[in-house]
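Anyone able to model this chain together with adenosine-5'-diphosphate?
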Amino acid sequence: MQPVALLSQEARRINHSNLDLRLPVPATQDEISDLSWTLNEMLERIANAFETVRAFTGNASHELRTPIALLRTEIEVALIRPRNGDEYRIILSHLHQEAVRMTNLVENLLSIARADTDLERVILQAIDLNDLFQRLARDWRETMHLAGIDFKADIGNEHFAVLGDPSTLPRLMTILLENARKYTPPGGSVSLSAKCVDAGIQIAVQDTGIGISENDMPRIFDRFFRGERAAIVDSSGSGLGLALGKWIAHRHTTDLVVGSSPGQGSTFSFILLRTVPPSLKERSLFAPNLLEDAESIRV
Ligand code: ADP
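re: yes, here you go
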């Protein structure tokens, strides 16, 4: 029993501050050495997960510290002397912009934290894509117009219904449209489109913006990564949008893919499963199996 006693003595020493320690593996090549290997592999997985959480918390605090410091400085400078109404209005509008940025950041942080702990629920059901496109077009037309960008939401004459989650699917499209707006200079164009492909309905957001360099490409889906050029063109991002977008796409059993030419533009796309339109529910006799699948698939 001596090796077992040694194993438990060493295991008792391991805690959150020394997760790099490993248990001794006896050279006996028996059940005890197997057990030590297995426990060491488990420790490796726990240490990696712990490191991810530590890095996430560090990055999150850093991202929040910057806008809070900015808010404080603006308020302190504003309070140095009395100002007239116009000046106060300008200051308040800056503070408001920062507050909006912080709200978005906190929402993305929360979603990612919830995704990590499986608390963010994604329930796939039949979604009328034409309706969703109309809503997004309504929300984005004005914003794109104000940014000097030509915007089209094109679904053709077809009526598409897809399997999607009513809250995260629009969020994914919004992340892509928001990026297209941020990284497309005035005079450019952005389009949101849907077309039928073998595997289902392909949704794409295409822009004629700054594009993504070869160096940045492998990292754009990493949490907190921001392209160098992107950070200059628009300082409001936090590098969480695409990480969240990729997670949402995976939960829709698809992948978020990108094609881009630096200086010419980018296209982000993903494929959703086609299903029976919600309006055909009552006529479900025509496709009972399809409707059953479409009703509620929890991923
Ligand atoms: P953020 O936009 O807040 O920086 P994201 O996670 O949404 O964070 O995007 C990560 C990076 O991917 C961006 O900083 C940028 O370098 C690049 N990127 C994303 N979308 C586009 C786009 N449409 N055009 C050019 N670059 C993009």
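Residues 179-180, 183, 207, 209-212, 216, 220, 225-227, 230, 237-243, 266 surround adenosine-5'-diphosphate (CB under 6 Å).
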